[in-house]
Amino acid sequence: MEQGYLSSFGEVLLYIVAGIVFILVTLLVSRLIRPHRPNPEKLSTYESGEEPISSAYTQFNIRFYVVALIFLLFEVEIVFLFPWSTVFANKALIDETNGVWGWFSMLEMLVFIVILALGLAYAWVNGFLDWVKPNPKPTQIDSPVPKSLYAKLNKKYERTQQPD
Description:
mainly alpha
């Protein structure tokens, strides 16, 4: 009788199915054994110990999103630089290829950094990193109180603030 073996793809599929089954069983067991006692305190929204006073859906400046994306871009660059530096520092590999590997990996990383620098320069030139400062305009209020009373009050305040 011929014994069948799994192909490489079959092994990967088996690991994926086993991982999904493990997660589902773990979630099911935790749901069965956990206590379920909801109350208004547990169901309320938590905002760093403060009571929420308005809706969480508010408008925010889109530049926060752009700055976060640029930050993530350079974080990913660092993630790629660490493994590169360990391979680049492998003296045996560089000696084995008569120095060609060292120059190739150095050139490859320089191209990578130049592409990222061009992306940063593009964002900078197009003003994606410029923060628009608001130009507030004072509100004009027609007050029934005469301006002379305000001036008198200001003079009185200035006298009380002067050191003796």
